Structure formats: structure tokens, C-alpha cells
Amino acid sequence: MSITRLARAAGSYAAACALAWTACHAIAAPAPAALRVRGDAIPEALAPAGDVARARALLVARENANCVLCHEIPDPALPFFGNVGPSLAHVATRLSPGQIRLRIVDSMRVNRDTIMPSYYRTSGFDRVAPQYRGRTVLSAQDVEDLVTYLGTLK
Ligand code: HEC
């Protein structure tokens, strides 16, 4: 797929999901407790220790996380990658676990115009189907699994 077509696909994906995000997703978790944001990070874990194997499954899960749609991830176990977002190679040398956590939870807090979905936010979405109101795309445990996995990319 060309870069332009992929960017367009990711853009419309993000736009559609911004309008009715959870309508794109079969899986939704209950609303989060208040998040403690410090600067551009969420220093405290949202759930007990993350699990790398679960994270690998999530990275390619089309119905919710689908990180590989936009990010290259240096892992031979993972298949196709998009390049709409930056490569996540060595991300753990650039960002702390807390900074990675905030970017997964709500990337818009770092860049208001980002196309990266806010995976653990419930407010600020319009036209969310009633059964999904107050629910997040990923669970707190999902977020921690991903933070733990990305922490291995040194
Ligand atoms: C629709 C495309 C898209 C998807 C899907 C997506 N991201 Fe992103 N992501 C981006 C873009 C674009 C950026 C660059 C930040 C910006 O836009 O300001 C980014 C930035 C990041 C960063 C910061 C990287 C750095 O070096 O600063 C991390 C970490 C990250 N994404 C993790 C994830 C994870 C984990 C997932 C899956 C749960 C995911 N992203 C899904 C588009 C996406």
C-alpha cells in the first residue's frame, strides 16, 4: 500500500472513530478512575504488572488497539506495519514508562492534532452509542501490558 493511501486509510479510520469511536470497536472496558497526569506523563501504573505476550496480541488486534496500522515495531513476531506514526524502535530510550503511558491513554494531551486514538479516555467524544458511553477502548490492564512491552524496546 502506498504511504498516501495508508495515511488516508488511517486518517479516515481516526476520523470515523473520533466521531463514534467505540462504534468501531467490539471490545470496550469500564470507565477509568481519575488519571493523574504529571507534565507529559502518567507516572503511576493503572494496573498490576503488564504482560508482554498479551501486549503482542494487542498490537495487532484490529478490533481495538491495532498499533501496527500506524507504527513500525521491531519484532519479528509481528507482521505488516504502517508508517503514519513514528517507528517505535528504541522508544524506551526516548520516553519513560509514564510518558509512554500518557501517549497510549490520551495522545491528544501531548498533541491536540494527533491522529493517534485516545485509548483510555471517555470524555470529549461526540455521538457515542449509549451502550459504549463511559467506556474506554482499552482496559487499564491492556494499557499496562503495552507500557511493559514498549519498555523492552531499548
Ligand atoms: C491512527 C494511527 C495510530 C495508531 C492506530 C496508533 N498510533 Fe501511536 N502515534 C501515532 C502518531 C501519528 C504519533 C506521533 C505523535 C503525534 O501525532 O503527535 C504516535 C505516537 C506514539 C508514541 C510516541 C512515540 C514517540 O517516539 O514519541 C507511542 C509510544 C505510541 N504512539 C504508541 C502507540 C500504541 C501502543 C498504539 C496501539 C495501542 C498506537 N500508538 C496506535 C499514530 C497512531
Kindly summarize this structure in a few lines:
The protein is mostly helical.
What does this structure look like?
With 154 residues, the protein is mostly helical. The protein has a single domain, classed as Cytochrome Bc1 Complex, Chain D, domain 2 (Orthogonal Bundle), CATH 1.10.760. Helices cover 33% and strands 0% of the residues. It is built from five helices and no strands. Helix 2 crosses helix 5 and helix 4 (97-106) crosses helix 5. The longest helix has 18 residues, at 3-20. The protein is globular. It starts with a helix and ends with a helix. 29% of the residues are buried. The model is unreliable at 1-7 and 11-26 (pLDDT under 50).
Defining key terms:
disordered N terminus, 33% helix, single chain, 154 residues, binds heme C, mainly alpha, Cytochrome Bc1 Complex, Chain D, domain 2
Write the layout of secondary structure elements.
Blueprint: H1 3-20, H2 52-59, H3 91-94, H4 97-106, H5 140-150
The protein binds heme C.
Heme C binds next to α1, α3, α4 and α5.
- The CATH topology is given as Cytochrome Bc1 Complex, Chain D, domain 2
Strand composition percent: under 5%
How many domains? The number is 1
Question: What's the CATH architecture?
Answer: Orthogonal Bundle
Low-pLDDT parts are 1-7, 11-26
Count of helix runs: 5
What's the mean pLDDT score? 83
Number of strands: 0
Largest sheet features = none
Name the ligand types: heme C
Q: Could you say which structural class the secondary elements and strand pairing correspond to? A: mainly alpha
CATH class equals Mainly Alpha
| Intertermini distance | 29 Å
